[in-house]
Amino acid sequence: MMVEKKSASRIVFVIINTTLLALFCFVCIVPFWHVIMASFSDPLALMNGPSLVFWIQGKGSLEGYKIVLASTRLWRTYLNTFLYVGATAVLGVFITAIAGYLLSRKEFKLRKFLTMFIMFTMVFNGGTIPTYIIVRSLGLTNTPLAIILPSLTSAYFCIMAKAAFESLPESFTEAAELDGAHPMVILFKILFPLVMPTMAVIAMFLIVMQWNNWYSSYMYLPRAEEWWSLQMYMREVTIKNNMSAIIQSGGTVESALNATLVKYCVVIVGTLPVLAIYPFMQRYFVTGMALGGVKE
User: Fold this and answer.
1) Are the C-beta atoms of residues 39 and 265 closer than 8 Å to each other?
2) What is the model's pTM?
3) Directed axis angle between helix 111-123 and helix 72-104, to 10°?
4) Mean pLDDT throughout 114-137?
5) What CA–CA distance (Å, rounded) separates 296 from 293?
6) Dist CA 101 CA 173 (whole Å)
7) CA distance 227 to 80
């Protein structure tokens, strides 16, 4: 067995690369670790402690979590967000699969035109105001559909799905057509399972995007707070320091010291579901991105 002799330049590269990656990991992990430690800290010790927390301050406290979890409004926004995420993931994958399959069919005459048209929107798009005008014209403002429908797919996802379907042998489709299979049967019973890694990546992107989406609630639901997403609720608590959202929902705030503590706890409660799901979806990422890579 031959052992590769490492040159001086290779050793320098490994050292620099490892150092940069370690610094990058540190920068990514430290803020979240700070929030975790702060959420379990004593409110008074946290206020008088350092600006960056690496360990629990004081004797530790669960008071912030008690206040947050006692809020009925938190659970309502949680349910709203699960509704938005679930509907967006299911309908988004369905629509994206149909679009990708259609664009991948060589016999489809408008295939090149629609592909170029979709790719054009990746560079130039209408922007926020035209989108809002369309949503308002359809009468969707202050309804859950205003959050779900505009987020179902994107040009990038359609191109990913198109490339994934194009990577499959034509013989699969031809054999199914000879057996008299309907196009929808060919798509969802034969081809869709073969591009599942790409669809899983698209679904994960849709889930994360919708979970982190607060701006749509802010823009489309000005008079329908009961349909706010969790992120919009978190914004009210963390940025605007709107503690009345918690107090009016049954929680009790004994001191102004708890206001800062609650902010950290809300961030943790709102982040946990995505952190729990991501490890199970991560295995699809490499395969899905490679299968859905743009090909000539």
Assistant:
1) yes
2) 0.80
3) 140
4) 88
5) 10
6) 11
7) 6
